[in-house]
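not sure who needs this but someone in the group chat was asking about TetR family transcriptional regulator from Streptomyces albospinus so here u go. i didnt clean anything up, its just raw.
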Amino acid sequence: MGMRIAEDIRSEAAELIDHRVRGLWKPNDADRQTAVALYRFLETGLPLSGEQIRSALAHPQPAAPASAGLVGLLRATAGLLDDAHAADGPAGRDAVDHVCLLLDSLALSRPGGR
């Protein structure tokens, strides 16, 4: 794992945020539930961990599974967080910040797109 992975995660998170804002990506219930689970964890003030992300992804999904893009992004983020050296670097922190911004916006969104 290296900076390249962190940059990819950051750009994917930024792209998902952008697509959501422009209405190109409509998060489903599973996306929101996963985001809410992680958002609640973040509210405890603990840093996000790979284990925490994997446990949120392991939760039983509603009828429709979470979007592949979100799941892939979160799996990559979990891998990055498992590598403390990469995660603590500036690129790693920036990537995780972007993922957290995405999670915040999903967790705070209303079902049905509004």
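also Residues 27 and 67 are 7 Å apart (CA to CA). if thats useful
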